């Protein structure tokens, strides 16, 4: 393959060679190359396939705006997808490959879709794949469309975070940015200067800035977003050569910066805009500025024979750079009749043909660009003159449709934009809400004025009789054409935000950096509006894709979410499958003898129903409330009447927020006069303590109450099942365990072998149960003792999954599962308890609102499917006779005791519809179920009171 290296000066190290591979073939490049420049130097023109139609794609730009050359870099756990080849620094051993193609990038079976492009317009899948259901087609569509595929393995790299404060942050290190940084440093201000490039360039000497101690230089750093208070996030790329070496020797791969600046200067420059014409997406068609970058910086010619197509003066610099480096320039095609001063003469002096008042209207090339069609056009470029078409042979077409200032950060800072007709682009207007200002090209100020005089042209007319709008590409990343945008306008999507989502223009990895202005201008043409009237889409962070690992910056595993742990160590050592439950790491089940999780769950459920099970309930919140006004305080918090709770008694209760919505539930124990123990759910162990303290300290300051968080101090072990009393009796506690002396919903304080313990008769399984509170450091010893004593009775450890089956069989409520942010106590059958309580409580007034009293609210009921073996996914919609959504399933299980599936659901007016049918919609199929009471097992609670 013929090398395309030039002999001119460049910023690469020609004395060294770097070996790399692309799509399994080995190549060589130099230090200082990017993957894109090295591929171009080796004559690789086809690097990928387009998102939807799998059209061949080549390198289009030289920076962050690249829409085409998205590749997969690395192998195994180091594999990273959707990486711009233009931003990957070349290093020894780099491995990269094309993506979204099969079997190869040169022969992609899915490219046959291009033959049917006219029949696959924007939004076609929404209109086509309706019957019988989208899920039938989803897998195929996702395999055909899309980008790279994740490796599914943990990221072995590590990342860092850095916080920094400064007086002035300068984003962009071109001439304007360097000048601004030097001026600020001269005023003795702390300055940060960052730029996404490897070296801070521009015409000013960089060493002058480096010598200033108060200037922090951050090359290879991209500003991502502008937030409140002058906060700018940025990503610094430190070590992109992802070698399989210990990370301790490599340092962090990337560093995520959070910079808070008193003033932000945005010297972010401008991005060249492409021109829209037929077949403008072939490999070999590139931005003119990108070609100039490859020639002058990397000493690479992307082609052997070039044509320049422009509507402004800036592209002429590319023609002269190619000519001066020995690359043939076949012609400059200028839409304008009269180029800028002196350009026509200089072009002809260089022996380059100039076609003024002409346009490139089409291209040829099966594997890559081989020729372009040029035709003369009228002054307004609205039509082509008959008989003027000619074909020019070339393998490189450099296009320039003007320049768009990079105003993303400015807009995020609250700045408004206006359309500047002189440059045909959007520029900053007035001042931003925050202290951010644009300078240089980012403000639409070009020096020299490389665009003027510019002829704004948003679409080149088709030649011949055939209309080629469906082959005129506006967004290369998403295969969005002129025809797609006009279709969006025809179907009523006049808003630029609606058009964006309907067509996909400006979405995904490139965020429309090269397509947005063309797209919105074309929408304006289709709807009879000027670009200024159409406006822009919202500029949201981040400006550039960022790895989630960089955002996490080491906050993974335990550092990402610090689990609360049970005081017992026994579980993980004896087959406990530890899972996150409301922020606690708890055993879901206990695997034995190679059994599956479902088999273990069924075994544990049967053990609790038929013998005895032992559950670690230590995660339940335990909050002690003491004081002369403790009863009054709790009475205001609980729906239940706490004043009537006698010492030694328990009461199940609900707590509401101000809107009358259920926040938490649990068992409340009266330990003595003015002394209460509040048991909350595991999720509410912390939140309910904060909630109580807020009311006590901020609203009811006169109450004499003390609150103590006791959850970590106690381990709670629960014996549950018909043989629970027999096992507990073997501890020989000084407590009469008989059902009449110690009935259900009572509590006792005693001691065991000199240690204080608390006993409660409360049950979440529906079986005879004893909850035992013991000092946390003695939890393991008591657990093992109970297992030993219970072995002759068939005792089994009980995990959370089995507990969930047991409580669903009983119809017990689980807050946060069977409730949501709209569930009131009236929806779960608590109207009677509320009516009996004479005093006020938090949320009571809200329950009187008409919306809360509406008979059509979703109410908790039980569901019995007609098919007893039907597995019902949580969230399944319940439909009425007309097929309208009537509710949804909140909990479901396959009950080994009842030998059928059962479910809890919230159904509209459910309490008045017992015995009626609903339809469950599961994977497009409909199944009948009967509405009934929530309790499926022992509805009278006889097994609780033995």
- Tally the helices: 24
Contiguous uncertain segments of 5+ residues: 244-249
- Shape assignment: elongated
The portion of residues assigned to helices is: 10-25%
CATH architecture of the domain at 155-266 and 403-450: 3-Layer(bba) Sandwich
Tell me the total number of β-strands: 48
CATH topology of the domain at 155-266 and 403-450, by name, is FAD/NAD(P)-binding domain
Kindly state the mean pLDDT as a whole number?
A: 91
Q: By CATH's scheme, which homologous superfamily of the domain at 155-266 and 403-450 applies?
A: FAD/NAD(P)-binding domain
**Alpha-beta classification:** alpha+beta
CATH class of the domain at 155-266 and 403-450: Alpha Beta
Largest sheet: 7 strands, mixed
State the end-to-end distance: 88 Å
Strand content: 25-35%
Radius of gyration: 36 Å
A few lines on this structure:
By secondary structure, the protein is of the alpha+beta class.
Structure description:
With 946 residues, the chain is of the alpha+beta class. Among the domains are: 1-152, 2Fe-2S iron-sulphur cluster binding domain, sarcosine oxidase, alpha subunit, N-terminal domain (Ubiquitin-like (UB roll)), CATH 3.10.20.440; 155-266 and 403-450, FAD/NAD(P)-binding domain (3-Layer(bba) Sandwich); 272-339 and 353-402 and 452-466, FAD/NAD(P)-binding domain, CATH 3.50.50; 467-543, Arc Repressor Mutant, subunit A (Orthogonal Bundle); 855-944, Elongation Factor Tu (Ef-tu), domain 3 (Beta Barrel), CATH 2.40.30. It is built from 24 helices and 48 strands. Strands 8, 9, 10, 11, 12, 13 and 26 form a seven-stranded mixed beta sheet that branches. Helix 11 (482-490) crosses helix 12 and helix 11 packs across helix 13 (516-527). The longest helix has 16 residues, at 684-699. It is elongated. The termini are far apart.
